[in-house]
Every structure is written in C-alpha cells, then in structure tokens.
Amino acid sequence: MIKNTYNILAVDDSTTFTAIIKEIITQNIPNTMVRIANSGMEAIRILGNNDIDLVILDVFMPVFDGIEMAKIIRSNHRTKRIPIIFMTGADPSNELKESALEIGGIDYISKSFKEDELIKLMNLYLRFIHWEREINERLEDKIVELNHEIQRREQIERELKELSVKLHEANKAKDKFFSIIAHDLKNPLSSFKNMAGILFNEFQEMSDKELSEFLSAMKDSANGLYSLLENLLMWARTQTGAIVIKPELFNLKEIIYEVLNPINNLANDKKINLQMTIDDNLNVYADSNMISTVIRNFVTNAIKFTNFGGEVTVTALQTGDEVMVTVSDTGVGMNSDEVDKLFNIAAGQQSKLGTNREPGTGLGLVICNEFILKHKSRINVKSQEGVGTKFSFVLPANVTNIY
Description:
The protein has 403 residues and is α/β, with parallel strands linked by helices. It is built from ten helices and twelve strands. It folds into three domains: 6-113, Response regulator (Rossmann fold, 3-Layer(aba) Sandwich); 171-239, Orthogonal Bundle (Helix Hairpins), CATH 1.10.287; 248-396, Heat Shock Protein 90. The protein has helices at residues 15-28, 40-49, 66-75, 94-102, 115-202, 208-239, 252-269, 288-304, 336-340, 363-374, and strands spanning 6-11, 32-37, 54-58, 84-88, 105-110, 248-251, 273-277, 283-286, 311-319, 322-329, 380-384, 388-396. The strands form three sheets. Strands 2-1-3-4-5 form a five-stranded parallel beta sheet, sandwiched between helices. A five-stranded mixed beta sheet has the order 7-9-10-12-11, covered by helices on one side. The protein is rod-shaped. The two termini are 50 Å apart.
C-alpha cells in the first residue's frame, strides 16, 4: 500500500525562519511532518535516523553551507535520491543557481516567498513524490511478478529436463524390450518351429529313445518360451501400473517352500545343494505373490550361474520389526559394472549364459526390483567374480509397518 504521509526536513541556521516554514506547511498540507535542523551537523543526524522525502535547504549557513550539505546528501546511498529545494535570503546569482542545480537541486526559491506560493510549490513536489511512490510500488509488484514467473519457468525447465531424462530412459527400455522380443523370443520360437517340423516329417523313422529326447527338448523349449512370455507380460504390467501391491500377513517359510519345491529338479540336474534356513514361525507382512516371484527368480538365477556341485541357500533373519531375506550362491559371481546394470532394462546389458549354457534375458531381475520397490524396500547385491553372489531385501515383520 502506498504511504500517504510525508517527512520534510527544513535546514536553516535561523530558528525563526524554520519555525515559519514548519507552521505554514503543517497547517496547510495534511499528512505532512516537518523536521527542523538549524545546522548542517544536525541535518546529517536527522537524515541518518529518519526517512526524509524532501529537503528545504538554506544556501548560506556556517560550517556547512547549502552547497556542501547537498554534496553530502548526494554522496550517501540512502539519501542521494531525496529532492532538494534551495532557499536564500539574497538574490541568487546565475552561477549560484547553476551550482545548486548541478549537484541535484530540483528548484530554487527566495526566502521572501508568499505563503500561497510555498504551499503550491510543496503540493506540486509532494504530488511528484506520490507519483514516484506509485511507480515504485508498481515496479516492485512487477519485479515480484517477474520473479515468480522466472521461478515458474525455472521449475518448468527442471521438470522438462527430468521428463527428457525419463523419456530417454523409457526409449532405451522400449528398445531393449523390442530387442528381447525380436531376439530372445524369435530365436526360441524359430527353434521350436524347426523341431516341430522335424518331428512331423520324421516321426515314423524315429526310435522311442530319439522320440523321447526330441519331445523332452521341445518341452524344455516350450517351458522357456512360456517363462519368457510371462516375464514380458509381467514387466509390461508393472510399467502401466496394472499391478497393485496387496500386503497380507503370511508365514514366510511356507511360501518359500512352495516356491523351492518345483525348482528342486533344476538344482538336482546340476547336483547343486539347495538349502533353506528359515524359522518355522517367521511371519512377514507383504504381497505373497510378489515375494514368491522374487524368490523364484533369485533362486533360479542362482542355480543358473552356479557350477555343478555348488550350493544355493535361502535364509531369513528377523531383527526387531524387520526380516531380511537372502538368496546366496557359490556361483560365478559378477563384477561391479554388471551389478550396477542388473535392474535397469534400459542399460542394454546382455544376459550371460548360465554355467550349463542356460539362456536368459535379465528381465526377471528387473521385475523383482519393481516388486521390492513397491514394498518400500530395495535389493542389495554383493558379488565377487569366481566366489558367488548374494541378493537380499528387507520386509516388515508385522502389520504395523504398512505401505
């Protein structure tokens, strides 16, 4: 809001003259306060302690004359914009007028003024001061508005940069996704198609043993294709938000046993010792389907990358209100670069063949990461080449720690 009061400083070594000025102005111009200074030093003190809007300054004064006083006013950053009206009892020379105006004086009047002339002059300059306040207030409002606009645009720019990064990652993920479909899905399908063709054309000539081996290979191929398709569809659903977490309290050992039971055959084929160390009464509050998927992927991956005769262990340990689930193996391990790219489909990392040349896409681990993130947790991976790998994550042990 614009201030409608005005502070005027009258500076003259004559106390009588300053008193006359004060009386004329305060009685005829409302909302105006006149401060009196009878010396330059007193004027400097008043200017330092008050907000002055206009100075009426006598030209001829002892110690500091009006010209020197005006120079002091103009040299201070707080007072340099205050309008100065010079007054003198003598008829000022042109040279004196020019000097006064050059140092920033806005007008020059004689002390033998008429009362109405002084009032008109004060009203005129106070009106100018009021206009300046209005302009300054508008400028300040405009500056605030511009600052808000700058901040808004900076925010938009930050959001656009974030969206650009996300779009770039999404495009890389899309390319990887299509690469999986084109390569990892096409090749097994082509192989399955060729085997079906051979079986159809040579069925009559095959022995029972050859037929059994052929059908076993086709079964493995079909299982692999089904697993890949399941992962592809699952990943697509995670990206569209179609999968919603549904936590419940369940016995962890029972769920993991159900997961490991059908996987035992994979471990037995490679003579891998598959162990589970979990307390019978250990409960967790989580989405049982998601956790089953995570454990299944971790264990099958561990078997895949563990040599014949190795060991895969599933453990769960409760500490306070949390349960840490760990799947560890004595397999081939990974370097730090491989670990960093494990859960990023956009990284374009090619999945390695298992120790028995088992294929894969790495998509299962990406899905596992999505599921664990939905549980407000994260997967921790520790791995060393030639030693083995350990995957772990934390779940709440009770309903109080809900999502």
